[in-house]
Write a structure and sequence with these properties.
Strand content: over 45%
Helix content: under 10%
Number of helices: 0
Length: 115
Amino acid sequence: VQLQASGGGLVQAGGSLRLSCVVSRTITSFNYVAWYRQAPGKQRELVARMNGGSTDYADSVKGRFTISRDNAKKTVFLEMNSLKPEDTAVYYCNVAQQFWQSGYWGQGTQVTVSS
């Protein structure tokens, strides 16, 4: 299974980006889809996840980011609004059949927010 993340880039603070993660096969069997990020010198952290019918967000992105999925397009999205410099990181998508499994990871897409 291959995951291709895209949509990252350079944006000014307050701007928006939409990340996409296209999966090489149907994602209907993946109950768990998520986005993580890793900033330089920091550990990878969970940004947003969908587990079955529920969604969760890191406190730092609540109200600004929205995770969604389109099974027909085999794609997971992360809509990011009101971006802040501290959102700068490499963003990774992750899908798994169950949340406790490591599943599959994308290669990461760089998001840089300038002040």
